[in-house]
Amino acid sequence: MDTPPNSHRPIMVAEVLQHLRPAAGEVAVDCTLGGGGHALAILERLQPGGRLVALDVDPIELPRTEARLREAGFDRGAVVAHHANFSALPQTLATAGVDAADVILADLGVSSMQHDSPERGFSFRSVGPLDMRMDPSHGETAAQLIARLDEESLMTLLTTNADEPHAALIAGILKRELPDTTHALTRLVRIGLTAAHPDLPKADVKMSVRRTLQALRIAVNDEFAALEGLLDALPQCLAPGGRVVMMTFHSGEDRRVKKAFQAGLRAGIYSSVADQVVRSTKEETFANRRASSAKLRWAVRAQR
Question: Domain 136-220, what fold?
Answer without folding.
Answer: DNA polymerase; domain 1 (1.10.150)
